[in-house]
Structures are given as structure tokens and as C-alpha cells.
Amino acid sequence: MTPTLVRQHLPHAGAAARVDLCARARDWSEIQERMLVPLYEAVYERLAVGPGTRLLGLGCGSGLALLMAASRGAAVTGVESSSPERLALARERLLPEAGDTRARAGTRLVDGSPRGAADARTSAYTLVTAFEPIGCLAGDSDGLGEALADARPFVERGAPVVLAGWGPPERCATSSVLRVATKLADPLRGTASWRPALRDDLEEVVQRAGLRPDGSGRVACPFGYADVESAVRGLLSTGLFDGAIAATDQAQVDKELAEALHPHQRRDGTVWMPNVFRYLIARVP
Description:
Blueprint: H1 13-17, H2 21-32, H3 37-46, E1 54-58, H4 64-71, E2 75-80, H5 84-94, E3 108-111, E4 127-134, H6 144-151, E5 160-166, H7 174-184, H8 201-208, E6 212-220, E7 223-225, H9 228-236, H10 242-247, H11 250-261, E8 271-273, E9 276-283
Parallel strand pairs: 1-2, 1-4, 2-3, 4-5
Antiparallel strand pairs: 5-9, 6-9, 7-8
Helix pairs in contact: 2-9, 3-4, 7-11, 9-11
């Protein structure tokens, strides 16, 4: 699911040719990204995000979390390095054509490193968020420490840094569906294999980044879809199944993913999977 729910890792060049990245980004923006709205709202409420907040969103994806912060009066900057397609959609949301009254003052969107989002005139950020949940894909936090290190010189001392992660598998119904990715991609198994979330995933990132833990919380984020087809498209948009597509083919992945979703389909055809996500607040010393 930053925006990834997980960061997009294409196993090799052949997989990239078999995935329509623009369509995937659109599915993420229109179907999947909204599943994490309760997480965004809980964090913004707890940290009283509003006028005066200068927010830096790492892995901002297609920008929904930034849009919600901006609607509270925050000045927002988004950085996205893994998906230019998602970033293009964020620009449509947050930086519409000149003269459009929807344009948000002070909004910046950058393709690349947090260093590219700051200059001598930039005020220090008062909040950093990394809402792409980690703890579901082996190695999915590898680039996060580097991004935090790049951002740190531009963040106020004592400012909160928020990281997000999957909850324990027994509290995430989607975990059973995500196992399909590992089963089908077994010949290519490596750093992009699914794994269950571990208790200290977030704490380990914070420790490596030299930040000080300062509270945490859990938020229910059920995944709800109009039908199985929408669920398949939404889950594929996370990028987690790209290895499976490379190892087999799109039709096989679609079929097995749809089968894995059947236990979660209700009588009216909708798909409902309760999940719990965790966030950790750390402070810049």
C-alpha cells in the first residue's frame, strides 16, 4: 500500500516491461491509497497538524496524505524517489494549473532526495512523515534510513518524525493474501520476499537513524473494495506482486490473487479485510 503500502521493487528489467506503471499509479491513487486515511488522520490529530506546521513527507506517493495536511493549514513538501508516475499524480492534486484556486500556497513536490527540497530560504520542517508502511517486505526499510539522514539537517531540533508499519499478521487479514506474492515469486525469492511484520521493525529504523522514540499508536485500517476486481487492482498497485508477475505471468497472478480474496468477499460482492497498522513517533535530538 509511499507511497507505497510497500515500496515498489521490480526484480529485474523484464518485470518493468510487463507492468504498466502509469496504470498502476492511477490504481494506487484511486483505489488503494485511501485505505490508509485513518492512519493519516490519527497522526495529524495526535500531533495537532495545522497552520504553522511545516511538513516534509518522505515517499509521498500520489500525495493524499499531503493533501489532508494541507487542508488543515499545513505547508507541505513531498519527496518521492521511487515512482515518478505517482509523483505526477501528486502534482495534479496539489499543484494544479496556475490560477486554479485549489493551489496550495507553500506546497513543493520533489523527485529525488530531501536535499532537493531545501534551500537557503526554506524554513526548517517541524514534522517529518514516512507513511509507507514497512515490515511486510524483506528489505523495505533499507532506503528509509538514508532518506531520514538526508532530511535531518533541514528539520527543527525536537521535531517529530513519524514512521508507519504493518501490525502483527494475526491482526492483518491482508497478510494471508500477500503470501501469494512470495509463493508465486519463489524462483526469484530474495530481498523482495514477503515476510511477517516484526515487533521492533520501526524501533530498529529509529535507532539506526539516531532518533529518540517518543510514543506510538495503533490504528485500524480496513481494506474495503467494491468487488474482487477492484481488490486485485488495488493490491497489484502496491508493487508487491511484481516479482510474482515476472516469475509467472499477469494472468496467473490475477487468478491466484482473486482466489486468495474469496474468503474475504461478502454476500454483496464487496471485499473486506480488517487490518491494524502501527505508527512510531520519534524526535530529532
